[in-house]
């Protein structure tokens, strides 16, 4: 099964609307304990926010939330 980021991208590519998905990411904390926050935006509106120790995990969580918010998953 595809991960949530791939599933979200595939969904919008199928609708020829992949350009409406964007990501905002930033980190906080000391270099030995960074926390990543990633927001998934669809048409500029935040649909999911993930916070994790790695950027990939935060992005995956944000995508999963976005899929649910959009009624895709």
TrEMBL record:
The lineage of its organism: Eukaryota, Fungi, Dikarya, Basidiomycota, Agaricomycotina. SMART domains: DSRM. Coiled coil: none annotated. It comes from the Eukaryota. Keywords: RNA-binding. This is DRBM domain-containing protein. InterPro entries: dsRBD_dom. Gene3D superfamilies: 3.30.160.20. GO terms for molecular function: RNA binding. The keyword RNA-binding applies. Residues 3-72 form the DRBM domain.
